[in-house]
Amino acid sequence: PYDGPSPEEVLDLRKQYVSPGIFHYYKKPIMIVEGKGQYLFDETGRRYLDGFGGIVTVSVGHCHPEVVAAANLQNETISHTTTIYLHPNIALYAKELAAKMPGDLKVCYFVNSGSEANDLAMLMARAYTGNYDAIALRNAYHGGSPSAMALTSHHTWKFNVPHSFGVQHARMPDIYRGPFGSDDPDAGKKYAADVEDLVRFGTSGRIAAFIAESIQGVGGTVVFPEGYLKHAYEHARAAGGLCIADEVQAGFGRTGTHFWGFETQGVIPDIVTMAKGIGNGCPLAAVVTTPEIAKTLATRIHFNTFGGNPVSMAQGRAVLRVIEKEGLQVNSLKIGARLTAGFHRLAEKHSLIGQVRGLGLMLGVELVKDRETKEPARDECAAVFERCKELGLLIGKGGLLGNVLRIKPPMCITEADADFMLEVIDESLASV
Ligand code: PMP
Prior knowledge:
Pfam families: Aminotran_3. Keywords: Aminotransferase, Pyridoxal phosphate, Transferase, Transit peptide. It is an enzyme of class 2 (transferase). This is alanine--glyoxylate transaminase. The chain has 2 domains: 7-60 and 327-431, Alpha-Beta Complex (Aspartate Aminotransferase, domain 1), CATH 3.90.1150.10; 66-325, Aspartate Aminotransferase, domain 2, CATH 3.40.640.10. 51% of the residues are buried. The protein starts with 6 loop residues before the first helix and ends with a helix. It is of the alpha/beta class. It is globular. Strand 1 (32-36) and strand 2 (39-42) form a beta hairpin. 38% of the residues lie in helices and 16% in strands. The chain binds 4'-deoxy-4'-aminopyridoxal-5'-phosphate. 4'-deoxy-4'-aminopyridoxal-5'-phosphate binds at residues 55, 113-115, 118, 141-143, 213, 217-218, 246, 248-249, 275.
């Protein structure tokens, strides 16, 4: 049993000694001291179903035995040298990761966080094209480092310092709240026209990059209409830009139908960034690009002390093996479909539900006070979220308006877990 400091003591220590900017999710914060598969345990041993996977990070399940064993073995053998010496893990993992990519996306760079990956992708695009301007999307989240913060488009995450120089944000392709809805077969093309407009009105006509999450995560699981990325990529490429897909949340089989989120839109990017689920919880992130683009970064030294360390590489390799061996992409499809059908049933019963959206196990339920006006039900969302915790389910919430329940569990969840989740959310919706 747990015999460390109490949650109150930990909270006190955090208040005194840890960044005051970090937030805890619940009115009365919970402390998690153990995890196993899709379950989390607090200091009293109470079990919760994890519907959020440490913000979409725990892809194959908490403390997966094969992943833990791979990391432990590597830690005991040699944990760190940097890439100044050869080590097989980085070479083998790069080959295995590249094998998962379509087209000519075959060269891997390893870093330690999603922000770093996006920083590097932007550097690459700017160095390769010789252009500076970039286009990102409104409602995007790409990280908190200075150049990633520039790409991020949520006032909540942007500090009042000059950060967005050279970045413009295109209209968010949101068929629920935007001008072109699900009844418009050309919605994707129409939203993408804003990328062309930004190129024409806001840049020299030449850009370095267009970057988009394949499904907006922090922004509340916004799935783009069909054809959006295809048209946006065409506009970006016509202006000399590279297309960057941020797969930090949508990648690694989570969408169910495809291994990568961008594949659901039928495009092939020039650069792909990934983090979170890639390592099932270790600080591992990557940028994958083509040999041609990669050459540009060889004109100077690009070095990263921890990037590609043998332990993260061992863990990344194990994650890929487990996704394959346990059929987790197929499971995402199956359980995702069960949850989606369940949420649609709940929507018939609870008028609070404005829209159910998402692919596979990357789902969002947007809550509104009124289906006509779509007035965001922010307080109700917070109340549902709290009630779920009391009933033993941890989920996420997000969206610019703070009214979207985000469901992104470890990909190993079962049908029984999904049914429990639906029951809990049903009861929580009824209680507000
Ligand atoms: N891109 C996306 C889509 C993300 O969701 C996040 C993190 N929420 C990041 C980038 C940044 O990742 P990190 O926090 O590891 O820097």
